Amino acid sequence: MKRILIDMDDVICQKGFINMVNEFLNTDFKEEDAGSYYINDLIPKEKFKDWLDYFEKRNVYDYVETVDYAKEVIEKLNQIYDIYIVTAYIFRDNPDFSGMQLKNKFDYLRKEFPFIDPKKFIFVSNKEIIDGDIRIDDSIDKLMGKAEQKLLFTAYHNKKITNEELEKLNIRRVNGWKKIENILID
Ligand SMILES: [Mg+2]
Question: Which end of the chain, N or C, is less surrounded by CB atoms within 10 Å?
């Protein structure tokens, strides 16, 4: 069985941070408004301490939406591939929140993807140390490890990366789980 390493944030679930930030600021920002990968950068500096207090009392995975068809397609892939969910969990703005983030990620995966053996959840920072045949991630940096197929999952922060740039890195862009199904399941 070929091994697939599947990222979690912005690949199987999305919009958690933007929904929480909008609730905190009482705004209607879109993810693109952040101008970078980090949605938290929308928070004004003077409110940042209050934001951290707010964040610590909540579970960002209560605010996420599961990406369309992620469940259906991963359940099918799970029959014919060796599936691992590989996700980073260190919280940039306060590393002391990372244990909470890890637990919240674990609980979300158990609830929404009960068909995946929890022994196949990998919580890690450097994904390159994990071997896989196929990698699926929304971040180019996280696709740098060895693999025969690398799929960049389209997300708000990677839309400007051109196909020429991706080709040089041996990465193929995928717009959603139906496309992945199309590529990985005959
Ligand atoms: Mg991600």
Answer: C
How far is Cα 44 from Cα 106, in angstroms, rounded to an integer?
30
Task: Give the number of other CB atoms < 10 A from CB of residue 132.
Answer: 21
84 pLDDT more than 80: yes
Residue 105 has pLDDT above 90, yes or no: yes
Query: Residue 35 — pLDDT band, cuts 50, 70, 90?
Result: confident
If you measure from the C-alpha of residue 11 to the centroid of ligand 1, how many angstroms do you get, rounded to a whole number?
Answer: 6
Q: How far is the CA of 176 from the centre of ligand 1 (A)?
A: 13
Report the alpha-carbon distance of residue 92 to residue 120 in Å, rounded: 24
The average pLDDT across 71-88 equals 97
What are the chain's domains? 3-14+64-184 (3.40.50.1000), 16-60 (no CATH)
The tokens for 164 are 């020429």
Measured in Å, residue 1 CA sits from the centre of ligand 1 at 24
Strands (E), the chain: 3-6, 13-14, 65-66, 82-87, 121-123, 134-137, 149-153, 171-174
